[in-house]
Design a protein that fits this description.
This protein is mainly β. The chain has one helix and eleven strands. It has a five-stranded antiparallel β-sheet with strand order 2-1-6-7-8.
Amino acid sequence: MHSSTSYLVQAIREWMIDGGLTPLLLVQIIDDKNLVVPLEFVKDGQIAFNISQNAAVDLILGELVSFKARFHGVSQEIFVPWSAVLALYSRETQEGIYFMGDDVKLVFLPEEPMESEEIITELPPEKPKSKLTVVTNESESPKTTTTPSKKHLTLLK
Protein backbone atom coordinates (compact mmCIF):
# COMPACT_ATOMS: atom_id res chain seq x y z
CA MET A 1 0.00 0.00 0.00
CA HIS A 2 2.99 2.34 0.48
CA SER A 3 3.41 2.82 -3.25
CA SER A 4 0.78 5.57 -3.51
CA THR A 5 -0.56 6.17 -0.01
CA SER A 6 2.47 8.02 1.33
CA TYR A 7 2.53 10.31 -1.71
CA LEU A 8 -1.19 11.06 -1.41
CA VAL A 9 -0.87 11.78 2.31
CA GLN A 10 2.13 14.06 1.74
CA ALA A 11 0.35 15.99 -1.01
CA ILE A 12 -2.91 16.44 0.92
CA ARG A 13 -0.97 17.38 4.07
CA GLU A 14 0.96 20.09 2.19
CA TRP A 15 -2.27 21.36 0.62
CA MET A 16 -3.85 21.65 4.08
CA ILE A 17 -0.85 23.42 5.60
CA ASP A 18 -0.66 25.83 2.64
CA GLY A 19 -4.33 26.65 3.23
CA GLY A 20 -3.79 27.32 6.94
CA LEU A 21 -5.55 24.12 8.01
CA THR A 22 -4.55 21.57 10.65
CA PRO A 23 -3.89 18.09 9.19
CA LEU A 24 -5.05 15.24 11.41
CA LEU A 25 -3.96 11.66 10.79
CA LEU A 26 -6.63 9.21 11.95
CA VAL A 27 -5.22 5.84 12.99
CA GLN A 28 -7.03 2.58 13.71
CA ILE A 29 -5.52 0.51 16.51
CA ILE A 30 -4.63 -2.81 14.90
CA ASP A 31 -2.62 -5.82 15.99
CA ASP A 32 0.72 -4.89 14.40
CA LYS A 33 4.11 -4.89 16.12
CA ASN A 34 5.06 -1.77 14.12
CA LEU A 35 2.20 0.30 15.58
CA VAL A 36 3.52 2.39 18.47
CA VAL A 37 1.09 5.01 19.83
CA PRO A 38 0.23 6.27 23.32
CA LEU A 39 -2.65 3.92 24.16
CA GLU A 40 -3.94 6.15 26.98
CA PHE A 41 -5.19 8.60 24.31
CA VAL A 42 -7.00 5.97 22.20
CA LYS A 43 -10.78 6.39 22.00
CA ASP A 44 -13.09 3.85 20.36
CA GLY A 45 -10.10 2.00 18.90
CA GLN A 46 -8.80 5.10 17.12
CA ILE A 47 -6.43 7.98 17.72
CA ALA A 48 -5.96 11.19 15.75
CA PHE A 49 -2.58 12.92 15.48
CA ASN A 50 -1.94 16.53 14.54
CA ILE A 51 0.80 16.20 11.91
CA SER A 52 1.35 19.89 11.24
CA GLN A 53 4.92 21.17 11.16
CA ASN A 54 4.81 22.40 14.76
CA ALA A 55 3.19 19.27 16.22
CA ALA A 56 4.92 16.38 14.43
CA VAL A 57 8.70 16.64 14.74
CA ASP A 58 10.91 14.69 12.31
CA LEU A 59 7.89 13.46 10.34
CA ILE A 60 8.77 10.67 7.89
CA LEU A 61 6.25 9.27 5.41
CA GLY A 62 8.15 6.23 4.20
CA GLU A 63 7.52 2.53 4.69
CA LEU A 64 5.50 3.68 7.69
CA VAL A 65 4.60 6.99 9.32
CA SER A 66 6.99 8.05 12.06
CA PHE A 67 7.37 11.25 14.07
CA LYS A 68 7.83 12.63 17.56
CA ALA A 69 4.97 14.35 19.34
CA ARG A 70 4.29 15.72 22.81
CA PHE A 71 1.50 14.34 24.96
CA HIS A 72 0.90 16.23 28.21
CA GLY A 73 4.40 17.71 27.83
CA VAL A 74 6.13 14.35 27.33
CA SER A 75 7.80 13.65 23.97
CA GLN A 76 6.95 10.26 22.47
CA GLU A 77 7.95 8.51 19.27
CA ILE A 78 5.04 7.45 17.09
CA PHE A 79 5.18 4.67 14.49
CA VAL A 80 2.17 3.86 12.31
CA PRO A 81 2.06 1.27 9.50
CA TRP A 82 0.08 2.39 6.46
CA SER A 83 -2.42 -0.41 7.04
CA ALA A 84 -3.53 1.38 10.24
CA VAL A 85 -4.09 4.78 8.59
CA LEU A 86 -7.79 5.51 8.16
CA ALA A 87 -7.72 9.13 7.04
CA LEU A 88 -5.91 12.42 6.75
CA TYR A 89 -8.39 15.24 7.21
CA SER A 90 -8.58 18.88 8.21
CA ARG A 91 -9.55 19.66 11.79
CA GLU A 92 -11.36 22.78 10.62
CA THR A 93 -13.33 21.48 7.61
CA GLN A 94 -13.25 17.66 7.88
CA GLU A 95 -12.13 17.61 4.22
CA GLY A 96 -9.38 15.21 3.30
CA ILE A 97 -8.53 11.74 2.13
CA TYR A 98 -10.14 8.65 3.62
CA PHE A 99 -8.77 5.14 3.14
CA MET A 100 -11.15 2.19 2.99
CA GLY A 101 -9.03 -0.90 2.63
CA ASP A 102 -7.38 -0.61 -0.76
CA ASP A 103 -9.79 2.13 -1.84
CA VAL A 104 -9.22 5.85 -1.41
CA LYS A 105 -11.96 8.42 -1.07
CA LEU A 106 -11.26 12.12 -1.44
CA VAL A 107 -13.75 14.31 0.41
CA PHE A 108 -13.96 17.98 -0.45
CA LEU A 109 -16.98 19.92 0.69
CA PRO A 110 -18.45 22.61 -1.58
CA GLU A 111 -17.84 26.16 -0.37
CA GLU A 112 -21.60 26.77 -0.39
CA PRO A 113 -24.35 24.16 -0.04
CA MET A 114 -25.82 23.15 -3.39
CA GLU A 115 -29.53 23.59 -3.97
CA SER A 116 -31.23 20.56 -5.49
CA GLU A 117 -31.91 22.57 -8.68
CA GLU A 118 -28.15 23.05 -9.15
CA ILE A 119 -27.44 19.34 -9.38
CA ILE A 120 -26.89 18.28 -13.00
CA THR A 121 -29.14 15.38 -13.93
CA GLU A 122 -28.55 15.32 -17.70
CA LEU A 123 -25.45 15.02 -19.82
CA PRO A 124 -24.66 18.00 -22.06
CA PRO A 125 -25.69 17.62 -25.72
CA GLU A 126 -23.15 15.90 -27.94
CA LYS A 127 -20.85 18.32 -29.77
CA PRO A 128 -20.89 18.28 -33.58
CA LYS A 129 -18.11 16.26 -35.15
CA SER A 130 -15.33 18.09 -36.97
CA LYS A 131 -14.20 17.38 -40.51
CA LEU A 132 -10.93 16.01 -41.83
CA THR A 133 -9.77 17.08 -45.28
CA VAL A 134 -7.19 14.96 -47.09
CA VAL A 135 -5.37 16.54 -50.05
CA THR A 136 -3.08 14.15 -51.99
CA ASN A 137 -1.91 16.59 -54.68
CA GLU A 138 -2.91 19.96 -56.07
CA SER A 139 -4.84 18.59 -59.07
CA GLU A 140 -7.29 16.54 -57.00
CA SER A 141 -10.17 18.11 -55.16
CA PRO A 142 -10.08 17.66 -51.38
CA LYS A 143 -11.95 14.67 -49.90
CA THR A 144 -13.78 15.51 -46.69
CA THR A 145 -14.80 12.95 -44.07
CA THR A 146 -16.47 13.37 -40.71
CA THR A 147 -14.30 12.33 -37.76
CA PRO A 148 -14.75 12.36 -33.98
CA SER A 149 -11.74 14.64 -33.52
CA LYS A 150 -12.22 18.05 -31.93
CA LYS A 151 -10.20 20.18 -34.38
CA HIS A 152 -10.20 20.80 -38.10
CA LEU A 153 -7.19 19.12 -39.66
CA THR A 154 -5.91 19.33 -43.22
CA LEU A 155 -3.33 16.77 -44.34
CA LEU A 156 -1.11 17.61 -47.31
CA LYS A 157 0.92 14.84 -48.97
